[in-house]
Structures are given as structure tokens and as C-alpha cells.
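Re: folding output
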Amino acid sequence: FENVLGIPKNRIYHKTDSDVGLGAFRKVFSVDGWLDKRIKKGKSNVFVYYAGHGAPYKNTAYLIPYDGDPNYASQTGYEMDKLYEQLGSFEAKSTTVFLDACFSGANRDNEMLLADARPVFMEVDESATRNVTVFSASSGSEISSAWPEKKHGLFSYFLMKGMRGEADTNSDKQITVGELGDYVKERVSNYAGMLDREQTPGLQTMDPNKVLIHY
């Protein structure tokens, strides 16, 4: 985000592992929270990157923080619909979410986190999310695969490669939302196949021609 998108370090909220409890989600995304206090309506471009666990509960998708329990997703997780609703309400110029998580009830090694998991199909209601663009790692019952040699999820690895320039398919020194989405979908699907898995990244956007990165 600093090197590719040029975002100053003091404008980045970066937390990992035990620092990402449910309280951190509420602090950042709630009304009058960290993001809300820094957004200039109609001017700010907001980016959210999440890599971690998700879990389903009653056809609803939840992000599971470090102190959360996937077996009690609704009590200890952060609801995706609520996240999109909050982000949309901030009225930023644009909001882009990169979501390296799956909602199948399994982890990246295909080990079940839940005894009786029913996968949640990630459907984003564009009317509810307004101008929120969402790049998601997988769909339906698929696993968001890891790539141990690269120390990343497949989705994150190719997302970053694409943003560094490989997704600029027409070599016009800029990358649109649609270009990045197509690049990530093709690369991740191909490499997941080599791991004998199916993984199809998704893109929900109202403006695939929006320029995400200039070079």
C-alpha cells in the first residue's frame, strides 16, 4: 500500500495476529471509529485488506478475529454485511476491499473448523454496499488456498503481483479494477488446479473501468 498505492504510513492501520480482536474491528469500522474520523466525504479513497478466517452461520458470513470462535460466529465474529454497510455509509470517494478469506467452515489446509459447516455463497448486494468494490479470494464452498513456498494465500500472492504491474494487460501504465480482477481470477484458478483444488476469486463492482493504480 505504501510502495504501490503511495499511501503514507501514518494513514495505514496495520494489525496482525493477537492485535486483531473483535474490539479492533469495532474500533476501525464503527461510526466515529478510526476510519470514520479520517475520511473526507467524496475525496478519500479507502482500501481494506483482510487475510484470515471466515465462518458461516445461518447463511451469513462472518470474519473471525483472533479472539473469536468459529463455532460461535454470530457472537464472536464480525458480520460481513455489517462491514459493507458501514463502509458504504462513510461516503468516501471510493472503497475497495481485498478479502483473502473463505466462508466454507474449513481452513487453508482443508481442515474443518466447524463440525457441521454449511458454506456461504458470497453475494454482495451492490445497493447496500454503494460504491464498495470487493475482491474476494474464493466463492461458495471453495477453500481459500495457501501457497506455503510463497508464505501467502494464493489470492494475496497474485493480488500483489497484479498490483505491481502484471495485471496491466494493455500496457497503458494503469490498472483498472476489471483488469486486476481478471488477472487474479485466471492466475489463482490455474494454480489452485495444480494443487488439485478449485478456487475462483470473485469481483463485485459497479465500475470495472475505474483506474485503481497509475504508474
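--- second protein (sequence, then structure) ---
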Amino acid sequence: QLGRKDSPSFPVTTNDELALILAGLDLFAIDKLTGDLEWRIRLPGQPSTRPVMDDTQVYVGMLDGSVYASNLRKIGELYEQNLLPEWSFEALTWRYQANERITTPPIPWQDFVAFSSEDHSLYSVAKEGRKLRFQMETDAPITAPMTHSDGYLFMASKDFNVYAISLTSGKIRWQYVTGLPIIPGPKAILDNLY
């Protein structure tokens, strides 16, 4: 049992070695092969998305519109020094503030990370320093999970549109009107989008 039984939780995130479990304000990392607890940190606010990680950082979207990035190496150092979860804030690399709740899990790609907010916007910020690369606005909130393939981000908004957006420039490659809301989010498989 990780966290309290009544804590809000999100789907598990994994890489080759770790499984990340978010329960309430606590983020747990479990060794995938042994099931041992690798570390536990305390988030600075209430999350609104599942955590996502790349080789160097873990990203979490929050109810207050923030996205936090925490350094995985620093988390490991703090754990070795037995300073977690009390000193979790020491591992925070940056915070980016949008206007409203973060609605989709961040997507790290190359040197930047993309995420969306209920303020009808898609944001792309640099992984190092959180400098805004581009912001794209839609006519309605982006609520379905996003996916990416071959340098393009695919997202659906509540205005019944599905967008293909270049992850490097933020330009719309194409836009498709479905006529109905997309709830589970698009899935990219080979050359097709479902």
C-alpha cells in the first residue's frame, strides 16, 4: 500500500527501471524488477495529471495551473542522504505557471516539454530553464490525453477538433473536425491516427 487508501491517484508511469505512483501529494518510485521503494517525494501542491519522466527529470501538472520539473539525480542524492520526503523541494528544477488547471500529462520531447491547460492553450517550454518556445490557443479546453509521433503532437479539444502540431515550431500541420468530443484521446500507430 502506497499512500493512504483514500488518496486520489493516477495511472502508473514507467521507464526501463522505475514505476512512478502518485498517491495524494506523494510521488513514489518503485524498482520494476524487485518492487523495492527507490524514493518518495512530496509534491508542492495538488496534482491534476499523472507524472511523466524522461532520462533526467520528472514532470507533474497541477490543479493550480503549474507544471513542476524535478531532477531525478538530485532526488536520488537526497534519498541516499535520508532527506526525503522532507527536503523534496530541493529537487525542484523549475515551475511553469499557466492560467488554469493542467489538463493533460506533459510530453517531454528532445529539449522541451509540451502540456495543455484549461485556459485553451498548448504550451511548449524548454526542459532547461522553462523558457516558452511556443503557445497555441484553441477555441475550447484541451482535455483528452495527447500523443506524439514523428515530430508531431496530436491533440483533441472540446471544440471537436483534432490537431496535428509540429513539436519543433508549433505550427498546425492539419486540423480535423470530428463533430463529437474526443474523450480518450488520439492514438498514433505507425502512419495512422485513431
